[in-house]
Description:
- 3 copies of one chain form a homotrimer.
- Chain A is α/β, with parallel strands linked by helices.
- In chain A, 17% of the residues lie in helices and 28% in strands.
- Chain A has 3 domains: 3-89, MurE/MurF, N-terminal domain (Udp-n-acetylmuramoylalanyl-d-glutamate--2,6- Diaminopimelate Ligase, Chain: A, domain 1); 99-309, 3 Solenoid (UDP N-Acetylglucosamine Acyltransferase, domain 1), CATH 2.160.10; 313-344.
- Chain A has a 12-stranded mixed beta sheet. A 10-stranded parallel beta sheet of chain A has the order 9-12-15-18-21-26-29-32-34-36, with no helix packed on it.
- The interface between A and C is large, with 61 and 63 residues.
Amino acid sequence: xxxxxxxxxxxxxxxxxxxxxxxxxxxxxxxxxxxxxxxxxxxxxxxxxxxxxxxxxxxxxxxxxxxxxxxxxxxxxxxxxxxxxxxxxxxxxxxxxxxxxxxxxxxxxxxxxxxxxxxxxxxxxxxxxxxxxxxxxxxxxxxxxxxxxxxxxxxxxxxxxxxxxxxxxxxxxxxxxxxxxxxxxxxxxxxxxxxxxxxxxxxxxxxxxxxxxxxxxxxxxxxxxxxxxxxxxxxxxxxxxxxxxxxxxxxxxxxxxxxxxxxxxxxxxxxxxxxxxxxxxxxxxxxxxxxxxxxxxxxxxxxxxxxxxxxxxxxxxxxxxxxxxxxxxxxxxxxxxxxxxxxxx
Amino acid sequence: xxxxxxxxxxxxxxxxxxxxxxxxxxxxxxxxxxxxxxxxxxxxxxxxxxxxxxxxxxxxxxxxxxxxxxxxxxxxxxxxxxxxxxxxxxxxxxxxxxxxxxxxxxxxxxxxxxxxxxxxxxxxxxxxxxxxxxxxxxxxxxxxxxxxxxxxxxxxxxxxxxxxxxxxxxxxxxxxxxxxxxxxxxxxxxxxxxxxxxxxxxxxxxxxxxxxxxxxxxxxxxxxxxxxxxxxxxxxxxxxxxxxxxxxxxxxxxxxxxxxxxxxxxxxxxxxxxxxxxxxxxxxxxxxxxxxxxxxxxxxxxxxxxxxxxxxxxxxxxxxxxxxxxxxxxxxxxxxxxxxxxxxx
Amino acid sequence: xxxxxxxxxxxxxxxxxxxxxxxxxxxxxxxxxxxxxxxxxxxxxxxxxxxxxxxxxxxxxxxxxxxxxxxxxxxxxxxxxxxxxxxxxxxxxxxxxxxxxxxxxxxxxxxxxxxxxxxxxxxxxxxxxxxxxxxxxxxxxxxxxxxxxxxxxxxxxxxxxxxxxxxxxxxxxxxxxxxxxxxxxxxxxxxxxxxxxxxxxxxxxxxxxxxxxxxxxxxxxxxxxxxxxxxxxxxxxxxxxxxxxxxxxxxxxxxxxxxxxxxxxxxxxxxxxxxxxxxxxxxxxxxxxxxxxxxxxxxxxxxxxxxxxxxxxxxxxxxxxxxxxxxxxxxxxxxxxxxxxxxxx
Lengths: 345, 345, 345
């Protein structure tokens, strides 16, 4: 199979310099690419390869300047464009065939959209609504009164508890749990009594949730993951939290109850948030930080406890000098004594 | 639907001041509540709202003093009482209908109690005993020789490995794993050989376990979660650990092998415990701490490594002054030199 | 049932001193063992018990010197040998009966080996190949084009995504996910667009993976867990990582994308690795460390950020002295002032 360079440029959204009729038969790394292949240059360090590569065409940064006559596709993000080209040559085969597998159990009064793919041993509760084109992989369990929008993919063994509301084009990876009870107990004497968790979880459009994530339902009201947020694997979102639009959270991070993240936050792996905090928009938190205070718009914090990154860096640098400092102070103590002795005379 | 104020006071276990015949039709926040609604006051900051709220009745702290003639229900924990009232107006519908779904697979010689709700695609091993009134949600898998008490709820896709023993009124949330092999290997030359994990897990009465938790079986003997302990999501309990009565552990915390927690511990999120430690009763560990030493009764520790909270706070405060300290020492060095020069003369 | 001491010595791979015909009927701790039982001595502290125990035989270290006439089995690792003896007396019953359960769904063109045990509600995709003697526990879901070798055990509710390749004698515990999409997004304006994850995961021979682990597929190419590596529960392995031969990783640790661990690494619990790092062979990382730099062969690091263990210990020790240091510097400041005043005269 050959694809014309013009078609590839269109598909990746780049500007073509060269003959659009050139036929391309595959993709490769810049050092390895040969005739009829397309490659990419993301790191300026490798710019010299654009001259020497055997590839018939190269995807380059928009502002790349080249003396070579090789065909180029200019893109703002060449690596991402290249990955789109990879998909063009290796289109993913569908996860599941269309249709409702005969072993799927569907509750009464549940409304199934058109064009679904529902795998073996999926269980859907009563009074649910599943949108058009949604894919439910094998072993997924959906409680009563759940609403899932169009074009979602729920991977194998996902659990969605009752009353959860999920938007459109949401992807949830294997083993994740949405709508589990919030962790709430009232101390009665020496024991704990369970506080009923009667709220829900809302997942808005275009959210992606990794594997084995847990998102708890609210005590009252909602836990909400807003439009376009992206959660990695093994993340914990406690009851009554909000994750803002287009916020990304790396693996194994955790939010305690009633903490609200703003828009476009970038949260590192294994970060922990205390409860009842508010994080502004465009904030960032370095990996493994322990956040015990709210964070204003645009701030970047880091550390345990998390502080503005410059402060933490300053303290960490000082800390490395601490053993030498102790030695110096010990010497100064001696010099001080000597001086005091002298001046006493 | 209206419920009389007297009935509500009974249900929440409070003392009524006012007309028990007043009909209440719903619940609301104190700023938003209107006629025929009940609300609550937990935070003294909002006490003035008790006079101005539109609500027909207010749940207040036991010692609340009011000049108003509004109907009150006095309770030790008004928020918890209010949540009980919420449940009265919005009773949870059952997770699952009673009965054994025809697709459930039940092993030979397994003894099922009365009044069970066993969902689609549940698999129960051989020689198990499941108590009365227990609910097994869809996709749950129970190994051979497992014993589960009365009135338990195992949510969807929970895995219980062979020989596990679970008490009464235990709740286990979606995706959790009880009885997986402990992480034990013997180094033989350059490689590792698996150490057989022949022990079991015991979960006592009234334990609640969050979603996607992992509790490993013992190498020999037992891993045991004692009566009334509450575990949040994504927690790791290694082989041969004990979690004491009424101990609460927040999300993503982990215990290494053979560590024993006492009664009524409060363990923060993302805390890690080394192995072979012993924690006394009524101890507390701050979030993200790394515990490398045993903890006596009643102690509160925090930090990495975890130390008594006052020590850690003192060190952290000192740490913030460290960059200024370095500057000061640099100045003292100069002043010292100057002094030494002077006194040499 | 009695087993001869000679047979036990053979089974545990030890050297017998005494009568191989002695019949042994069970195992016990050294303080509790009685006639016809076998016990072990691992800790030299308890050596005196070898004389006084009621056991008929004791498994002892290879170099143990005894004046007693009691029958001994000498082994390099007595505890491990004892556990092998335990298994001899309490052989594990098989997790599952041989055969393909009639409810298992097997895709077209999938090739099943001999002697399999495939449980209820297992789903296997198309064009898979499952080796001989492999066990697939209930609720396990295997995507299309997956290859699994001989003698593997996949516990209940494991998810293996499409195209994953698994070697021989691999054990994967309940709820783990292999082959989920890597966490890759390209920022396009204010939003994120998904980067297709077209690579795979390869798990080599003799790997063991704990419960509720997540291992992401590569963006391009492979994520690879090499021969003999052992992963505990709730671990995150991001896209394009490598875990080297015989490396062990404790629970709740996480690797960011494209990080490569060497052979025989020992990684503590809750450790986090930044992305694009390289760790040499025989390195070790202390629990909860945050690794932000590559680690050479044989190095042991610890801390947040992780540094060679001696450095971190030196800094931590200094840190504990910091509050006293501040007090001392305050005093020196006063003494300095006094000296300066004096010398000014």
